[in-house]
């Protein structure tokens, strides 16, 4: 084994000059030597002077050669050596260790990083917790067992986009899918099982995205839902939606040469396409030409899926010498966009394609920035064709038993901190940190204010030293002493962007020479000039822009553009200047002369700060949506100097549901915007997953207000009868959903047998069959809560039925207190309701949740099954159409009571 690993390392040239000396003149550089030349400051490679075995040295050389810049700078060599030794220990001690090929071990066991999480010592902690639990199992069963262990500790809950570390996720006891899958990958790797996080960057048939896990078992990659254990592999609630995906991919650290389709390579990772494991696929070849028909080489081509009110780039490629590139994807529609800089501007072209029908697309770079374009498209996702492995009834019963037991273990842990909230701040398992911080603070009021300034997720994993640093070592410029809100949000606050917040103010005040501090305190311009002179750009070694900690930038004198912005803001705040990265435009700004002013950190840029105009959007109620929401219904992107589109980001809140900014609140009366060209995209998602899209470009000019029309297209097709469902069917009645949630008495409700008709009364009603505790059901119920006002004013009943008693036991009433007062809870009896829905509506699977709108004449006019973001909007659309049919001359009052 040692000989095999060492020979591989030498063949790759990874070991190189591991002690830090320069390569001999004329010799080509190894990846590690090249890294050493790019990062000479801070003695970042000193760990290679430590005595190591050949195995350890080869593993360390691989990690250091391919790790992104933030990992190289922010974590010590000793940190990685501990991980390497633990990984080698697992390979030696686990029964499957000798069966794992070198390639799979190197790329899918050895790396510490999974995605964009904060790194921690989870590998060692998890190995101790899991080694005896899995040692006697087959590799297949060990994967299932590790997932059960993860479910024992963590359950799904949406949150913001920053990814907590695996240990922080364990302490919190919940996480979104990205955090759950990061946790499971870390746990599998800890016991020597190759694992990778895979994801669809965006769904095609519904909004949002999803991440899950693939594990290598005896020569094959199998998938599983993280923290959502099933009796067998290759089974999850997402089997059906992933069959409609356009793309599934993962990023593999290192120069990976596996059998999968390679989409791109960078100095740190290889991106591979694994959509063929899940869905029917087809290739498309794209040819890019100029207006004279000449092929254009090295042109950026973006493959875009409609999702969350925008066309999101799921893949980016460049044309070859013939002006061509290609992609294999699921059999649905995409928008293909190509742009090429030309002189002081650019030219671009775009076109819609349907994978599986179209074989080629010819894009002509004919549009210029000044062109005014308007387009309407109908975007269709792939059709569902789910694949399912066989599961016996005994396997299902045993899995349900285990999940219920794991729920009880996790709930017992959660109960230890549920009543420990401080001033209404929910820190979950981190409550003791907040309590200690406030009790030790000299100024309790200011300590509480600081806690309110950071994000909800920060409260759950922030360290005491970080809070104390920013409370005790913040300096305020005399100019801002009376502006408490400005001070707390933009000077005291350690949060800048999407980084893990860290202590740095006292460090800067100690490490930066006093003469330089005095310069920095004179003007933010002094800080900007110092950054331009002393910080070297290493974006190529951090292509995913993982944030480098401010202290790391100071030590290494290296940063990518994003990390440099964070560093500038952190340094400015440490010197007492209010600073921020603007949430809408992403621009670095400092507050001087009573206003926010842009700070340019681009060395080659001589452009003056952008001048502002305003955008005012008019909107005519389409009878379904009266106040379109940003992200959900529409989005705005700015054309860059190279023609690439950059999404403007507006408030979306901490809950991850994008319920922040909307038309009336942000754009109706005009929103400030930098001068330039923009693309406005809006879409109406239909029940079958298709989208009616409206696109238009406009120009913002300095000092002027640009008026544009926001259009939400509407499907004018009349409501049709889709099938039948017997309203006399019986179920176990639990009671009013709102009352039971308020009293938290769902688990104790005994239930009585009732008919649907006796509960709903005559007329239309909504029936939902739920898989409580599952991510699709949680999303659906949150969408329904968002439409509570409509559903209550409509007045018709909603019956929410758990699929069985196991599902009922997993329902967390405290999460759904805002359900409409028209909602009733129940339990399906012997799968009767589900069986009839499957038979009558010709459903291929029993995937949950299932929602129907039906009437007591047994006619079904709407059905939704499985993972659907935007269910509330779909219900609104159908209800509006039903009310329009009821009113010969529909009005807003009649259409939506």
Please give a structural write-up.
The chain has 897 residues and is α+β, with helices and mostly antiparallel strands. Among the domains are: 428-584, no CATH class; 612-710, Sandwich (Immunoglobulin-like); 723-895, Glutaredoxin, CATH 3.40.30.10. It has 31 helices and 36 strands. The protein has an eight-stranded mixed β-sheet. Strand 19 and strand 20 (588-592) form a beta hairpin. Mean pLDDT is 90; it is low at 1-12, 15-24, 654-658 and 888-897.
Features of this protein?
897 residues; alpha+beta; Immunoglobulin-like; Glutaredoxin; eight-stranded mixed beta sheet; five-stranded antiparallel beta sheet; 31 helices; 33% helix; 23% strand; globular; disordered N terminus
Compile the SSE list and pairings.
Layout (H helix, E strand, L loop, with lengths): L1 H11 L18 H8 L15 H13 L2 H6 L2 H17 L8 H7 L13 H13 L4 H15 L1 E2 L9 H7 L1 E2 L1 H14 L4 E6 L9 E8 L2 E5 L14 H4 L6 E5 L7 E5 L3 E5 L7 E9 L10 E8 L2 E9 L5 E7 L2 E10 L2 E10 L5 E5 L9 E6 L13 H22 L16 H10 L3 H10 L2 H6 L2 H9 L11 H9 L12 H7 L2 H9 L1 H11 L1 E2 L12 H7 L1 E2 L1 H14 L4 E3 L6 E5 L2 E4 L13 E8 L14 E6 L5 E3 L15 H5 L3 E4 L1 E10 L5 E10 L4 E6 L12 E2 L5 E7 H7 L8 E4 H5 L3 E7 L4 H12 L1 H7 L3 E5 L2 H5 L13 E5 L4 H9 L9 E6 L3 E7 L5 H16 L5 H4 L2
Parallel strand pairs: 1-2, 9-15, 17-18, 22-28, 32-33, 33-34
Antiparallel strand pairs: 3-4, 4-5, 6-8, 7-8, 9-12, 10-11, 10-13, 13-14, 16-27, 19-20, 20-21, 22-25, 23-24, 23-26, 26-27, 29-36, 30-31, 30-34, 32-35, 35-36
Helix pairs in contact: 1-3, 2-3, 3-5, 5-7, 7-10, 8-10, 8-12, 9-10, 13-14, 18-22, 19-20, 20-22, 21-22
């Amino acid at each position: 084994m040692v000989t095999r690993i060492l020979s591989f390392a030498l063949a790759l040239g990874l070991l190189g000059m591991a002690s830090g000396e320069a390569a001999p003149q004329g010799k080509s550089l190894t990846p590690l030597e090249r890294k050493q030349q790019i990062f000479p400051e801070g003695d970042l490679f000193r760990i290679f002077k430590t005595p190591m075995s050949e195995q350890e040295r080869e593993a360390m050389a691989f990690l250091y050669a391919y790790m992104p810049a933030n990992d190289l700078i922010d974590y010590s060599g000793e940190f990685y050596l501990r991980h390497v030794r633990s990984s080698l220990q697992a390979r030696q001690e686990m029964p499957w260790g000798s069966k794992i090929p070198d390639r799979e071990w190197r790329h899918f066991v050895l790396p510490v990083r999974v995605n964009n999480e904060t790194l921690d010592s989870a590998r060692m902690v998890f190995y101790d917790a899991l080694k005896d639990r899995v040692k006697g199992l087959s590799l297949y069963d060990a994967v299932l067992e590790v997932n059960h262990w993860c479910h024992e500790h963590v359950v799904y809950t949406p949150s913001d986009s920053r990814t907590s570390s695996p240990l922080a996720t364990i302490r919190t006891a919940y996480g979104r899918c990205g955090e759950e899958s990061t946790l499971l990958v870390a746990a599998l790797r800890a016991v020597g099982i190759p694992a990778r996080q895979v994801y669809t960057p965006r769904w095609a048939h519904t909004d949002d995205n999803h991440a899950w896990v693939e594990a290598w078992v005896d020569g094959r990659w199998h998938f599983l839902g993280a923290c959502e254990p099933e009796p067998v592999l290759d089974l999850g609630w997402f089997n059906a939606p992933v069959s409609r995906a356009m793309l599934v991919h993962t990023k593999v650290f290192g120069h990976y040469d596996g059998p999968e389709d390679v989409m791109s390579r960078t100095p740190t990772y290889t991106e591979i396409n694994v959509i063929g494991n899940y869905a029917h696929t087809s290739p498309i070849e794209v040819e890019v030409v100029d207006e004279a028909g000449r092929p254009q080489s090295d042109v950026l081509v973006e493959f875009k899926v409609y999702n969350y009110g925008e066309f999101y780039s799921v893949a980016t490629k460049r044309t070859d010498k013939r002006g061509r590139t290609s992609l294999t994807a699921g059999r649905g529609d995409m928008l293909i966009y190509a742009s090429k800089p030309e002189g002081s501007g650019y030219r671009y072209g775009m076109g819609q394609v349907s994978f599986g029908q179209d074989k080629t697309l010819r894009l002509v770079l004919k549009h210029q920035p000044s062109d005014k374009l308007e387009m309407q498209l109908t975007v269709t996702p792939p059709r569902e064709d789910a694949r399912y492995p066989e599961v016996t009834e005994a396997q299902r019963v045993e899995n349900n038993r285990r999940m219920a037991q794991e729920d009880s273990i996790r709930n017992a842990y959660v109960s230890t901190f549920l009543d420990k909230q401080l001033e209404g701040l929910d820190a979950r398992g981190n409550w003791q940190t907040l309590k200690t911080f406030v009790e030790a603070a000299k100024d309790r009021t200011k300590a509480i204010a600081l806690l309110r300034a950071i994000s909800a997720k920060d409260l759950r994993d922030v360290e005491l030293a970080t809070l104390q640093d920013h409370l005790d070592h913040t300096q305020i410029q005399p100019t801002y002493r009376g502006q408490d809100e400005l001070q707390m949000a933009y000077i005291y606050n350690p949060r800048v962007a999407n980084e893990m917040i860290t202590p740095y103010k006292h460090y800067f005040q100690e490490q930066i020479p006093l003469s330089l501090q005095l310069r920095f305190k004179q003007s933010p311009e002094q800080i900007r000039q110092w950054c331009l002179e002393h910080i070297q750009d290493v974006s190529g070694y951090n292509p995913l822009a993982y944030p480098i900690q401010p202290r790391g930038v100071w030590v290494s004198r290296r940063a990518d553009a994003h990390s440099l912005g964070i560093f500038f803001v952190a340094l400015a705040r440490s010197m007492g200047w209010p600073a921020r990265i603007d949430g809408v435009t992403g621009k670095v700004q400092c507050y001087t002369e009573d206003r926010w002013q842009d700070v340019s950190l681009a060395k080659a840029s001589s452009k003056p700060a952008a001048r502002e105009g305003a955008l005012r959007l008019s909107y005519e109620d389409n009878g379904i949506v009266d106040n379109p929401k940003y992200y959900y219904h529409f989005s705005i992107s700015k054309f860059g100097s190279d023609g690439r589109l950059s999404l403007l980001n507006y408030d979306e809140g901490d809950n991850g549901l994008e319920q922040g900014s909307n038309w009336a609140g942000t754009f109706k009366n005009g929103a400030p915007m930098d001068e330039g060209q923009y693309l406005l995209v809006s879409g109406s998602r239909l029940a079958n997953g298709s989208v009616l899209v409206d696109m238009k470009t406009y120009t913002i000019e300095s000092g002027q207000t640009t008026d544009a029309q926001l259009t939400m297209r509407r499907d004018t097709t009349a409501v049709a009868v889709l099938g039948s469902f017997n309203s006399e069917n019986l179920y176990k009645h639990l009671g009013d959903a709102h009352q039971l949630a308020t009293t938290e008495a769902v688990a104790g409700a005994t239930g009585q047998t009732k008919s649907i008709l006796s509960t709903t009364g005559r007329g239309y009603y909504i029936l939902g069959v739920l898989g409580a505790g599952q991510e699709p059901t949680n999303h659906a119920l949150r969408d329904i809560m968002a439409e509570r006002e409509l559903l209550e004013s409509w007045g018709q009943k909603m019956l929410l039925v758990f699929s069985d008693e196991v599902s009922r036991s997993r329902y967390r009433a405290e999460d759904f207190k805002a359900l409409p007062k028209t909602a009733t809870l129940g339990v399906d009896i012997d799968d009767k309701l589900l069986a009839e829905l499957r038979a009558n509506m010709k459903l291929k699977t029993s995937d949950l949740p299932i929602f129907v709108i039906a009437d007591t004449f047994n006619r079904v006019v709407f059905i939704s099954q499985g993972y659907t973001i935007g269910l509330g909007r779909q219900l609104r659309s159908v209800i509006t159409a039903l009310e329009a049919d009821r009113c010969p001359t529909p009005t807003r009052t009649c259409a939506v009571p």
